[in-house]
Protein 1
Amino acid sequence: MALYEASATQLLSQLESGEVTSVEVTKACLDRIRQHDGAVGAFLKVMDEKALAQAAEVDRKRKAGEELGLLAGVPVAVKDLLCTEGEVTTCASKMLKDFVPPYSSTVIKKLQAADAVIVGKTNMDEFAMGGSTENSALGKTRNPWNTDLVPGGSSGGAAACLAAQMVPLSIGTDTGGSIRQPASFCGVVGLKPTYGRVSRFGLIAFASSLDQIGPMARTAEDTALFLEAMSGHDPQDSTSANVPCPLFSKTVDQPLEGLRIGLVKEHFGEGLDGDVEKAVREAVSVYEKLGAKVVDISLPHNKYGIATYYIIAPSEASSNLARFDGAHYGHRCDEATMLEELQKEKDALVAAGDELGVKRMDTPLIRMYRQSRAEGFGPEVKRRIMLGTYTLSAGYYDAFYLKALKVRRLIREDYDKAFKTVDLIVGPTAPNPAFAAGSKTNDPLAMYLEDLYTVTANLAGIPAMSIPCGFTSGGLPVGLHMQAPALEEDRLLRAAYMFQKETDWHAKTPSL
Amino acid sequence: MSDNYDIIIGLEVHVQLATKTKLFCRCSTKFGASPNTQTCPVCLGMPGSLPVMNREAFALGLKTACALNLNVPRFTKWDRKNYYYPDLPKGYQISQFDLPMSEDGYLWISDPKEQFEAKKVGIIRAHLEEDAGKSMHDEAAGKADTRIDLNRTGTPLLEIVSQPDMRSPLEAKAYLNELKLILTYLGVSDCNMQEGSLRVDANVNLHIKSDDPHKIATPIVEIKNMNSFRAVERALAYEAIRQYDEWQETGKTIKDAPKTTRGWDDQAQVTRPQREKEDSSDYRYFPDPDLAPVITTEEEVEAVQQALCELPMAIRERLHDGYGIPAYDADVIVNQGIVAVTYFEDLALKTGDAKMSSNWVQQDVLRVLKERDLEFDQFPITVERLSGLLKAIMNKEIDTTRAKDVFTQMLDSEKDAPAIMQEMGIEKVDDSELDNLVKEILLANPKAVEDLKNGVQKAVGALIGQAKKKNPNIDPGTFREKCLELVKDM
Ligand SMILES: [Zn+2]
């Protein structure tokens, strides 16, 4: 087995036994990236030198018998919206194309403390807004299973580099399905933890009450290990859960006894691809064979999930993205040209005798804001800022934002009720497999429906996971979506491990 | 003031709370550092940074709320107030909107000169929020350039909003004085207006008297840019006249025009229209998803109330009732702050004469502080030393006039009153010596004796003058008594 094919767990045992060094492993990954990333486009930046230096440092520590972290010497990819001190962090936006944060996010610090080797920053939809990574202003990412197709999004680069076996571990973020949907499209494992399980400090916010950072990998074991390394209370994040962090990697191989699985009636209706449904139903029968009991359940407010999500997320985003105004950092329009144009406009209005027009003209400051933001943000980001600005406006707030908060509570209550009778809720991650690049770019609503099954977990704050569970007749991976009560990531991981022991879908790899 | 209208005044006061660090990060709040040296990713609003509430700031807010008789609800939350301005790096200010940390309180104001009747001014709410930075406009070299200092960004502010209960500039000033005094007694803010620790905006309009049973209200104006309480008083007085003139000219009432903002020009002593902040009409408030709501238990509020220091209003009453000094005197002392109150009380207890102690504190001590531009705690004569001087007066070892000379000497000397008196040759004149002096003077002034016998008392004044020339240490009161006594026998 080539080094790039190995899981993190396998690599760690080889590193510990001295069979390989971290420098060798890192080189293998960097070679693989060099060979295939031209076609895949998973990375916005590869940090060869830094990665190799870090790998060499871990090798030295290991040789000297020093204490090592949980991921010592294992290459990791990071989605490009986690602030990394001294490294450009772009959010795949022109706005932050040259932004170098003066500090690192808590998760990056935890990876460093775990002695992981960060090899690069992965592509994504701009500011994590999108389901295909096509909204990136800085690069195109393609699905390794078929490069005519999208990898999903917004963590498209994060999923694609795993599927293409460029790294064994990759960090994603998930606001409405952004870890799970690309994991499903690329045939890898992705877990969105409970809201508050992983610190958001240093994560460039899209929608603060929904965003979660989470692990992506190729196996349940690796996912457990990775989650363990990044979780934990953070005093710098007031929304971080102050609870002890379980040792997921120690329990992942323990099968769940008497498992009760809930199937949501509403998830198997109109709009669900036939091949996807077939794969999901077969996956459920695998659990049945393992002794699980399958129960039909109803989440009556699930159908309002998308509507609720597309009010709450843009509202928060419109405020979170206000700071990108060209005044302090990030993109600023060319001021000389801007002032010249402003003067020309004024001259024209004066010549026309339009006094009111002159009075209503932008001040140079306002024009600088307008123009910097117009140039710096892409169309999807602008669309969501406008949606959110609208839904928070006086006169609309009660009808939209406040109402959405109420529905959000009902959605959460549906889950509370359901989890009284089942241990896990299982279904498709996305209604369809990966689609052709460009096929939905002109239809934002179709794109929003990609999140149909995933957004409610974010609205309820519960953990959810996607694991490979089969293929369509066209040979595209299908993801099985599993949801558990808050703080029960352990249950998801053990269920995933049970499934992966019985099947080999997760071991399938695309030919590049 | 005019008989034609009532002035309706409400005040919004922003107070910087005296925490060491900012409201949502651990940067220092110290005033006067070089620009942008007291900042971090959080108060700079860097992407990915998150706020964490400063418990101390909340505690100071709680203390103030209790002192202002405000109700503290069990649940309060943080909201984002969205607007664009270069000194607001996040594009929103973290504030409190519909569920503030305290609501519905009051404050008593009164005037010792009784120019208005004591009244209760309602307080609508007091809520916490973060301060913005400072824009500094540099017009040098013909090119308007703005520089931003974000040191102040994120400093905790308590915004205290009064009801429109004040009816004159004088009442407004009294409210501000009393509020500042309370905040100072509590130690929650240094209330330094020059450094911006206390900022006042005033909302004012007129209710014009007319035969129409419905009162006529002029449009509300918010006045900003007032740098002292005096400026507030003047700006309000100016604005009342301006609004009345405008109403007479245009007839516009509150129904015809929205609230506008005017700035006080202290040099010209006028208010001028101010440009509104862009988009100020809709701040799109919503709960800040980065911060957890704050829960305050009844026990916590009770504990704060229990631990509250004695407040100015109560001290005034105690000084008036307990020491028997006039209400006016009590007011003067209390307005000087807690150090003055303590000084007075110690002095009164040591001398046993509250009235005399109060006079000395109000007149002589305060005069010296003013002349020398000192704070009360810098006053050079300790209570112990001053009480020595006062006791000498009470024992008639020295008269009040000469005691003032001794007092002046004591200011720049470490010596006690008796030592200085000795140096100045001041000593009590014994009875027989005084008797002899009285006799001598009476014999030398037969005309005066005649007058005194005929009941012309003022004649004794000239005799005291003669006696003082012979012996400056005599006590004029005692000398007068002796004179009258002896004349009766003559
Ligand atoms: Zn700071």
Protein 2
Amino acid sequence: MIISVASGKGGTGKTTIATNLALSLEKAQLIDCDVEEPNANIFLNAKINEREDISVSIPEIDKTKCNFCGKCSDFCAYNALAVVPSDVLVFPELCHSCGGCELVCPLDAVGWHERIVGRIEHGVADGLDFYHGLLNIGEIQAIPVIKALKRKVDGDKNVILDAPPGTSCPVIETVGSSDYCILVTEPTPFGLHDLKLAVDVVRHLHIPFGVIINRDGVGDKKVELYCQNEKIPILMKIPHSEKIAHLYSKGIPFVNELPDWRSRFQNLFSRIQSEVKA
Amino acid sequence: MKQLTVISGKGGTGKTSITAAFASLAGNAVLADCDVDAADLHLILKPDVKKTMGFHGLNIAHIDKDRCIDCKKCYESCKFDAIDKEINLIKESCEGCGVCEYICPVDAITMKERDSGFAYISETRFGPMSHAMLKTAEEASGKLVTVVRNNAKTLAEEQGKDLIIIDGPPGIGCPVISAITGVDLVLVVTEPTLSAIHDLERILGVANHFGIPSVVCINKYDINVDNTEKIEQYCKSNGIEVVGKLPYDTVVTDAMIREKSVIEYSDSDVANKIIDMWNEIQGRLHI
């Protein structure tokens, strides 16, 4: 079963839920798909034993064949190519590697080279199979790194995907094809507003979902009212506690220090499992 | 005209609360919410929308099944797996490149404009505001950020404002890069947690990569003073100024619930510290 953990907004506790849930389960795999800011390993300290560079294909123009007709740049939807009278400029950061320039080139002048945009890493922590991805600084496109991570999903395991914040491409890429999605929110106006956006995303993707309220007690009751009205199950509430906040600040998963939470996460998992099967 | 962007590698560090506080202090500024994925600034500033503009991100393929001869060339050529074996378009995956349209031998595919969201020009109690909304599951948030910034620039020029305050998106990718390129100063808001420190290092790397001066604010600095010290050390050894240290205070959430900026809501310690930080930043921007 694949469970993704998402939230419209960042900083609501996605990584907290994903790591603590994964650490509470047997035969689990945790994949941190927030490749812009991967944080899960701060809590897991998995020893990284495998690294794999992730690259994308970028056009390389053979200028001995090119007659600067401009068909490639006219076709490119991303403005990644510019043709001037005696040169073709390639802007690799803008290229989506669609292959269109090669298709339209009448003189077969477009070849390809690989460009590294990030890497994925694998390790094990407390028996937990762990992957994360790192987008290189200054790179725009997180999608190729997330795609590479998702190829590592082990269908025989209980897979937890930690999603990036927001509601656009990287989130869709992560959450799509999961069996269930946990949406993490805070009981504040910002939390509620962003939760509604996240609910739109999972409904749009037809993925069953439920809500976990983190830092319960800091704000108001509007998130709960919203969930009641929308018939969205509230799976769990994690209280606003100094102890939990302090453990978080030091990078310690709270199930390690507060063991009764381990069984709560196991119950949460069983509940999701039965809902997915039903 | 000067431009300041408030960012944080990680979300939820208090960017928007700080931006809203600056908005109430600035006087002669245009406000821009560039977190187009999950815009929150409007929850405090309550903008009165004056103008709404449609936003077209990337194009999207449209398949005419009556014409399709099931040759599967589009399926084979799409690098984004946006067309399945039964030749159905998977909308969320289409990046609008146009390869399928080009390769289709029977003209069954056409690229169409895709309604991806809206850009707004508004008035607030603190001045004009440029903001936007990206529709659910749409792409091109970086492009929409550029639209919001261009609108803010036009507003500033038309109304003789000398500063644009930009509430930035989280992360280090496409939308953030669009929100910081060419600005005069970046304020990075961080928290004294190990994960926030990790994100801070990455986001400062991005600002540095694009040659943009950065300063740092440590929010909720008192929740872990050891980590606060680590951040200060890190900034010091990298020549980055910490312009503000804000204590944890529930008035920040209370102000949010009452739809007010912290400055309007209370004259607490945290509000005064934000005023001091604002004065520092004004000095840095020479305004």
